[in-house]
Structures are given as structure tokens and as C-alpha cells.
Design goal:
The chain is an all-alpha fold. Helix content is 75%, strand content 0%. The radius of gyration is 24 Å and the shape is elongated. The relative contact order is 0.05.
Amino acid sequence: MKKASELAKGRDGGKGAIEDALRLGVAALDQQRAEEAERFARDALARDPRHPEALHLLGLALLAQGRAREALTPLEQATRAHASPAREAHLGKALLQVGRTDEALAHLERAVDSKPPFAPAFRELGILLSTLRRFDQAEAVFKRGLEIEPTSVELSLDLGAFYILRADARNAKIAFARALVNAPRDTRALHGLGVALLYEGDLTRAVERFRQVLAIQPGHPGAQLDLAQSLLQLGRADDAVAGLRSMVLASPQSYGKALKALVGSGRGRFFIRRSAAARFLNPEA
């Protein structure tokens, strides 16, 4: 892969090199190559330290690497130089990750109130409001986001998760079903729908959804555990135990969750010793 500096050759005045670096940096970021995107952004900034797009790209690349504190400065500079809904939202995300909640809230609110609004900001703002227990506002933000971007799978998933958090299984089913219209094989939506059905006591349909998840993504830990819990409630203990044993064999760290599922069903409450429970769930150990 050529470095952005090499692309400057033959281009006039360095402007072309900056454009090339930004184009390649954005492509790298889209392909989840954040370190490479960072290098392109820094190369562009070496030619123009105040370039808003290069500063924005650098901030996004640092955010993608989990370096939110470092991302703050370039994102703040980019937003001051030329504010946009996207830059407000990304700055808000960085502020949130470093614990500056009030400032994050202000930037995210600006991003969703702009014209046109920045659709991804609705996710960040809705999740933040949920964590602040401002549930009515969070619900309104998610719904408004879906009005603006009705085919957004991520917003539908967020709304479904919000309703699960609120123990509102009926509306959770609607939200996850909406996600499945646009992404029929999305395991997050299938699993969420199964959880909503489990909450409602519709165990047979919940089992169907969890099995769908496992057919697409074998070993999905959440679906394995929820499938076992559903089967236990249906009285199909042998099938449930077989699934839990398979889960523990593939992922020994899931032993605690498997044991909790058994104990919660009454099946595992008679293990006097931890070693006996371990042998029951993993006879080959």
C-alpha cells in the first residue's frame, strides 16, 4: 500500500496529495483499518495542520481504536473550524467516552436538531438518555430517528433493546420484527425477538428464534443459554442439558451462566458440591 506522501509526486501544490490521503483514509476507515486511516490523516495534516476534514478523519480513526481522549482535540478543532451535524455527533461520542456527559449531551442534541439531522446521532443520544434514565426522551429520540431513516436496522435494534430494558415485550417484538424486515438474517434481531417472546411466555416460538440464531451463528452464547432456559421451562430438560453441556465444552467460562440456568429451573439446586455440578455440565472434564 502506498503511503500518502508517495502520492504527492506529480501533484500540484500538495492539494492533490491531501485529497488523495483523505480519500484513502476514509476508505481505510470504512474497511475497519483504523491505524492505516490514522496514518493518512496525519500525512494530510503534515501539509495543512488546520485542515478540517483531515482533523475529523484523525479523530474518527482514533475513536475507532478506542483512543477517545486523544480523539477529542482533533474533533474539537474540526468542529470549531467548520461545524456540521456529523462532527457534532462524533465529538459528542468522544466526550461521552471520556465521561464528559453534559457536554456530550449538548453536542448530540445539536446533531439531531440540525437540518438535515445526522441520523447516526439518534442512536448515540437515545442510548445516552437511556443510561441517564430519561426513558421518555430516549424513546422519543429512537422513534424520531426511525421516522427520518425508517430502514435503519441499528435504530430498530436499539429501540428493541430499549423496550427489553423497560420489560415491554410487546413493543420490543415490533421493533425487532421491523429490523428483520430489512435484515432477515440478522442474529441480533432474531435473538432479541426470541428474548421478547421468552418474556411473554411464548416458549415454543422463542425456541424457534433461538434455533434460527444458532443455525446462522453456531455457538452464539446468548442464544444457547436462552434456548436452554426455554427448553427447561417447556420441561425438555434433556435437550436443555445437552445444549448447556455443548456450550460449556466450547466455552468453559460460560460454566457459571449454565449452572445459574440449571439452578433457576430447579434442576441444579441439589448439587451439594461445586465439583459435582461441574462434572454434570462437563462429564469429560
